[in-house]
Amino acid sequence: MNVCLFWGNMKARTTYSILSFVLVISLFSQTAFTKSHPKKGTPNQQSEQQTGELAGQHSEQQQGMRYPEGPVPDMTPGKLCDNPSTYRYPEKIAYCNRDVDPQTKKDIINEYDHVFGFSIGKMNRADFKIDHYFPLCAGGSNDPSNLWPQHKSVYTITDPLEQDICVKMAEGRLKQADAIRLIIEAKNNLEKAPQVLSYVRSL
After folding, report:
1. What is the 3-state secondary structure (H, E, C) of the chain?
2. Which sequence spans correspond to the domains of the chain?
3. How deeply is 46 buried, as exposed, middle or buried, from its count of CB atoms within 10 A (0-12, 13-18, 19+)?
4. pTM of the entire predicted model
5. What does the alpha-carbon distance between residue 123 and residue 121 come to, in Å, rounded to a whole number?
6. Tens-place pLDDT, residues 146-170
């Protein structure tokens, strides 16, 4: 009787240990899979995450500069068109017509100077344009969260990329989500812009 009870207890303990081990392995595997296969979101969700990852590094790089070399994420996270005039390309993305008034442009410059310590207002206004972080042709918005003061030394690098990206979108060779990812990469890392442009032209 005691022997049977002893072996019964041993069997139960062994079964419990095996089940616990299997559970731990299962949880570990699920965690590893989630990290290596992150869930995809909308272009706006993807851009917010990618922009957020660049925020700290990018802000530090621009401290002490007279003008920004890229959009400051805290002020300009980027936004897609949510009040479309029409829909474009094979993907049928929302497209907003250009609509940024002069006062909004002044406000953007003043905010960048006041909040981040730039000196854009003291420089030649003709050397700047108010850029759509996510270009209109790629489905960007006119919202202030998608606007920033861009110096000519910067837009001479990024404008050709924007044009080629939109051509590829029109040809159906590039999806909006991928286009926005490439734009974020180039505008926050100007040294990578030529490489990104080369990739786009190869599509």
Report:
1. CHHHHHHHHHHHHHHHHHHHHHHHHHHHHHHHHHHHCCCCCCHHHHHHHHHHHHHHHHHHHCCCCCCCCCCCCCCCCCCECCCCCEEECCCCEEECCCCCCHHHHHHHHHHHHHHHCCCHHHCCHHHEEEEECCCHHHCECCCHHHEEEEEHHHHHHHHHHHHHHHHHHHCCCCCHHHHHHHHHHHHHCHHHHHHHHHHHHHC
2. 1-38, 43-202
3. middle
4. 0.72
5. 6
6. 999 999 999 999 999 999 999 999 9
